Amino acid sequence: MSRSRLENNEVDSAVVLSALGSKYSAEILCAAGTPKSAQALSETIEIPIATCYRRIEELVDAGLLTCEGRQLSDEGRRTNIYRRTLDEIEIDFSDDAPGFSRKRRTEAKNRLQDQLEE
């Protein structure tokens, strides 16, 4: 479901608002400016790993976070790596239903930020 919604850019504003309204979602998005595993996000934000996984799933379904691939953890397990898909979001409440616009992250910005983190 989340991949087809993301590819077609048909994410419902209610899904986005719901994901953003969940506790810790904003913190996860802020921390996911560079690729991070759920474990790293959980430790950075100091939240339980189960909660972190639930928020990640909501954010991915809303198209606000994406899985960039997999890497080996310190324990030798393959883990998903996540990064936010936007830098800004604007919510408009002036119509009958809320709408939103977002400033998507470019691949060039992702590569530049990755190089700065190394």
Automatic annotation (TrEMBL):
InterPro entries: WH-like_DNA-bd_sf, WH_DNA-bd_sf. SUPFAM superfamilies: Winged helix' DNA-binding domain (SSF46785). Residues 107-118 have a biased composition (Basic and acidic residues). It holds the Pfam family HTH_20. Residues 96-118 are annotated as: Disordered. This is Helix-turn-helix transcriptional regulator. It comes from Natrinema halophilum.
